[in-house]
Amino acid sequence: MNDLQPIDSRLGSITIALICVLFLISSRLFYLQIIWNAYYIERSEKNFLRIEAIPSQRGTIYDCHGNLIATNRPVAHLIWNGTGNRTLSQQQKKLLAHLEAITESSITSNAQLMQSIVSAEKRYKQILLAQDIPLQQLSQITEQYPDAPNIGISTHFERYYPYGPYASHVIGYLSRQVDSGQMGLEKICNDLLKGQEGSVLKTINSTGRNITETTEQESLAGRDIYTTIDINLQRIAEQVYPENHSGCLLIMDPENGAIRALVSRPTFDPSLFLKPISYETWNELQHKKPFLNRATNPYPPGSIFKLVTISAALENGLLHSDQIWDCKGFVEFAGRKYWCHRRWGHGELSTPQAFAQSCNILFFELGKLMNIDLIADYARQFGLGQSTDFLFADHPGVVPSRDWKMLTKGERWWPGETLSVTIGQSFLLATPLQIARMIGSIFTGYLAKPRILESELVECSPLDLKPLTLEFLRRSMRLVVTRGTGKKVNDIPDMKVYAKTSTAQITDFAKRKLSTDYLEHAWFVAYARYKTEKPLVFLVLIENAGTSQVASTIAKELLCAFRNLHSAHL
């Protein structure tokens, strides 16, 4: 009996061990099948049910005449459909070699791609062989291999900019990586343009092969938008603006604020971002700063601001239109000389003549009579120093005053600084968009909010200026063209032009010799009409040109091209 006792003991131990093992297995099964039941059911379903997005077609962007300036074009990609073979057959290898020859792309010669093709073949997966196949190549493939199971054609719509870089700062661009607008109207109107994605439910087997698919929701195309841009005017504006200069060109309808053309240089081609770009290309773009919209960027306005100074003086009885001024080349004030741009002087000039010749002496004398806050009030009335409420973010510019200087610089205002402000220098800054709107208001009597979309409301705010003041400004701007600094545009047939030129200093004269980056900015702004056509405001700004004559030359080319465009249509 005692001999059986060890055996019973061992059997008991084994039994206990088996019970423990069975308990652990049961516990694990309970844990997996009961507690985590919902989780594993969901994972199982995901193994064979897959929801994929159906991309929506992006809305089209039109100019004011209904011309396409940003749209979509169908694009075809060549796809390899895996059919479950462990290795590629000789026939499949020949097929790939032939596809490589037709598409003129690297397939069999690309070892990494071939490895991916073999992997896709085993798992019933798809892999991209060639992108954006031309129609001729696509036709050749479908004709020669109409039923080849390994060949698939994937089609979708890609953004297309038919005018390349033209109006790129208005249109913006679409990012391929995130499929959303990154600048301009493509960004601001992205929610309208992008539409709504659809979805498709696909049944996938254990090898990854697509068994069935059911459309759950159809995609909805994005909305189209209409801009105020006239692509014909945009084209001539782009063509006359020199490639080697930075700056901007604007054409605006002063009656309703519609922007008919906007050029900002340097520029970029929005199509560039539809495909991956190299790090070097991106760095080069950043160096040139092509994404800066110079139409909404602030610059010293220079002599264009003299229109504000004269308005303030006339409105407050400090100036008479028939006054005579003696320009000796400079005036002295507070122990300092303030120079005219013509250092040997203009001699005796009437007020309109002094304006036409852009003589500084008249304005320095007015600066002695006015305080800075009075000038600032009239500058703001012309829309300077504040946002234009343009759809694109714009800089408000700077209109200095005594309070402004104390707040920003912590310093008091000195009377000599007022003299510099009267000729558009000192701390003054204005955007080309503000200047174009200001010039338009002299002829309409109101400031029109700049518009870039046809759907935007026309918003106008009246100028609180006497009719005689506005009439004097118009006559003076006409005299600039007939007898003053804007004579270059006086001989264009059938064009009546009112203008103002400006050479805006950006640093002291000593630095001018160090680099062209310190040369003055050149402005030319005009209100012009061809025959009985609707008048428009034309603005040219050339950075670091050194003289306003550079801008005047480009302005003449622009106005001549504008005339030729309209005369051809009559």
Describe this structure in words.
The N and C termini lie far apart (129 Å). Helix 9 packs antiparallel against helix 19, helix 11 packs across helix 14 and helix 13 runs antiparallel to helix 16. The chain is 38% helix and 21% strand. The chain is elongated and about 125 Å long. The strands form seven sheets. Strands 2, 3, 4, 5 and 10 form a five-stranded mixed beta sheet that branches. The protein has a five-stranded antiparallel beta sheet with strand order 12-11-21-20-19, sandwiched between helices. It has a three-stranded antiparallel beta sheet with strand order 1-8-9. With 570 residues, it is α+β, with helices and mostly antiparallel strands. It is built from 19 helices and 21 strands. The protein has two domains: 175 residues, Penicillin-binding protein 2a (Domain 2) (Alpha-Beta Complex), CATH 3.90.1310.10; 275 residues, Beta-lactamase, CATH 3.40.710.10.
